[in-house]
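Researcher: I'd like a candidate sequence for this fold, 373 residues long. If you have to choose between options at a position, lean toward the conservative one.
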């Protein structure tokens, strides 16, 4: 039975050791990191840098606790993420959100290069075939996956599986483009952006949010560069009238997420990847959006495990037991106590991620929750 270690967010004693950073420090000591990572071994600490305006990421103070603990165990860590906007801009976003070498104590690098196409093709499975895994993540011998648990417009639930799949894979490959990158998951390879002229109010939100400047309006019509577009879907998300859509299949998308996560993990030897899920500032949307809404669930705590399925299942079960917060999107959508909050907000079959991860042998449903004393 897999173990999932948990530290609650509630602070009942006014001592540093009882603070959430202090609890994370204690959790990491109890884990015995030297059992996973060798002396002087490079360890990627994979997180999400956020976006300009989306600040509810895994906070730098927590990332520093992770890197400090890894260094104490003799490892050589660094912080990384893959390109979601232009590379230099993304590093500046990380800096604005407080993630830099001074704050986290280690280098902060892009896993797939400044242009997001530094990657290696890895056999994936029956849905994706093969996928472009970021070269740094492909080559590094060990990794700690620090995931901000939240909602997601496509995935419904975003945790470690989504962090591995979308975050461990590049946006595009230098030869086969977005069809070999994370765009393949969004559209399963062939989706094209559809503009409904009748619904369009020409607010230009889509043009402003496109990370590749693919969209423009000319002579009263929307056009986009089909070859460069990597199908991130941000334009469809910000359209207030539903005038932009990208065809997709929810079931295939959920399965493709786990398939891509399996491809990323296939580049590591057993017991070389550790997962930390942060159930804090649980907002309804992805950290890649240009704003962060207020949380829909109160902070719950931090989970650590070496079992991907176990930590995801434990996270989801905690969310299911939580009460929706007032004055949030949960209240707007009339989510009641006992409801599946994320399912009701996004209407996505997000549990298929877990089912597919189990089928692919990425972990076990049987786990023991070990709470920090």
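Model: Candidate sequence:
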């Amino acid at each position: 039975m897999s173990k999932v270690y948990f530290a609650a967010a509630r602070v009942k004693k006014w001592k540093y050791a009882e603070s959430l950073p202090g609890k994370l420090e204690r959790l990491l000591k109890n884990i015995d990191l030297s059992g996973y990572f060798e002396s002087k071994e490079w360890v990627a600490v994979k997180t999400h840098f956020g976006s300009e305006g989306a600040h509810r990421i895994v906070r730098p103070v927590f990332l520093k606790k992770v890197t400090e603990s890894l260094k104490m165990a003799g490892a050589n860590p660094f912080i990384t993420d893959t390109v979601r906007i232009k590379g230099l801009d993304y590093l500046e976003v990380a800096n604005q959100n407080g993630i830099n070498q001074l704050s986290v104590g280690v280098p902060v690098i892009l896993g797939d290069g400044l242009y997001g196409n530094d990657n290696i093709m890895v056999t994936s499975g029956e849905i994706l075939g093969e996928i472009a895994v970021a070269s740094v993540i492909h080559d590094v011998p060990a990794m700690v996956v620090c995931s901000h648990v939240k909602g997601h417009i496509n995935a419904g639930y975003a945790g470690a599986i989504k962090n591995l799949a979308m975050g461990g894979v590049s946006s595009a490959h230098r030869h086969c483009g977005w069809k070999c990158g994370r765009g393949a998951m969004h559209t399963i390879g062939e989706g094209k952006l559809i503009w409904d002229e009748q619904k369009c109010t020409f607010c230009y939100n889509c043009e402003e949010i496109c990370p590749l400047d693919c969209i423009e309006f000319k002579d009263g019509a929307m056009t986009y560069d089909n070859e460069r577009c990597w199908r991130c879907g941000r334009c469809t998300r910000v359209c207030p009238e539903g005038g932009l859509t990208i065809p997709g299949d929810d079931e295939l998308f959920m399965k493709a997420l786990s398939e891509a996560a399996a491809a990323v993990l296939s580049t590591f030897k057993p017991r070389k990847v550790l997962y930390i899920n942060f159930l804090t500032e649980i907002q309804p949307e992805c950290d890649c959006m240009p704003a962060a809404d207020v949380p829909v669930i109160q902070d719950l705590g931090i989970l650590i495990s070496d079992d991907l399925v176990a930590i995801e299942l434990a996270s989801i079960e905690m969310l299911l037991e939580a009460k929706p917060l007032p004055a949030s999107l949960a209240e707007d959508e009339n989510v009641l106590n006992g409801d599946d909050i994320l399912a009701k907000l996004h209407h996505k079959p997000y549990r298929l991620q877990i089912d597919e991860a189990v089928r692919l042998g990425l972990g076990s449903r049987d786990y023991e929750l070990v709470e920090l004393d």
